[in-house]
Design a protein that fits this description.
The complex is a heterodimer of chains A (116) and B (112). With 116 residues, chain A is mainly β. Chain A is built from no helices and 11 strands. The termini of chain A are far apart. Classes of the chains: A mainly beta (116), B mainly beta (112).
């Protein structure tokens, strides 16, 4: 009964490099969310995906950020040309169906990105 | 804009006492609420949830109360223990988007 798995747990990138964060949802879950958390702050919604579809990306920055959830394999959050302001913890969550129907949403342990 | 907010950023309680953490929300269309606990360096951990057609739900040592009239949510922890020290977030789910909207969080410190 593995939970939501995220990797890498810690990632250091130089300014201008690319960061790729991976998320494997819980078994049987086909809905994935990505959140960003800055130090001493709450979690900010970024994107909500279902297999092969982006449902809501209203929290994604317009540039440099993209997300996918292919039919096979983990969900990927990709940050191109990272800047220091991208340094944060990125959390993935998954659920079996739309959260609005009362399905519990479980979080992974996060990926900590540091841009130097 | 609409948001979920918490009344107090920090709460300090004596071990063994009961804790009450509050949350205000502004969107009356929200139909599902969740409380999460987050320890340092870890992801949010589900504690308890409640649907908008309920006003109270109990778990093990925790109770969530929902007052839709004043758009207020609270988490009560009975016999608080040192292991309860963490940041607690309330989150709301809105039917249209199915996404969680988090509040800022309350840091609970338990004094031995």
């Amino acid at each position: 009964n593995a939970g939501v798995m995220q990797n890498p747990r810690h990632l250091v990138r130089r300014r201008g490099q690319e960061a790729r964060l991976r998320c494997s949802p819980m078994k049987g879950h086909s809905h994935v969310y990505w959140y960003r958390q800055l130090p001493e702050e709450g979690l900010k919604f970024m994107v909500y995906l279902q297999k092969e579809n982006i449902i809501d990306e209203s929290g994604m920055p317009k540039e440099r950020f993209s997300a996918e959830f292919p039919k096979e394999g983990p969900s990927i959050l990709r940050i191109q040309q990272v800047v220091r302001g991208d340094s944060a913890a990125y959390f993935c969550a998954s659920t079996m169906a739309r959260a609005s129907s009362g399905n519990t949403i479980y979080f992974g342990e996060g990926s900590w990105l540091t841009v130097v | 804009g609409e948001s979920v907010g918490l009344h107090l950023p920090t709460l300090s309680v004596q071990e063994g006492d009961n804790s009450i953490i509050n949350c205000a929300y502004s969107n009356s269309a929200s139909d599902y609420f969740i409380w999460y606990k987050q320890e340092s360096g870890k992801g949010p951990q589900f504690i308890i949830d409640i649907r908008s057609n309920m006003d109270k739900r109990q778990g093990q040592r925790v109770t969530v109360l929902l007052n839709k009239t004043v758009k207020h949510l609270s988490l009560q922890i009975a016999a608080t223990q040192p292991g309860d020290s963490a940041v607690y977030f309330c989150a709301e789910v809105r039917d249209q988007g199915g996404k969680l909207i988090f509040g800022q969080g309350t840091e609970l410190s338990v004094k031995p």
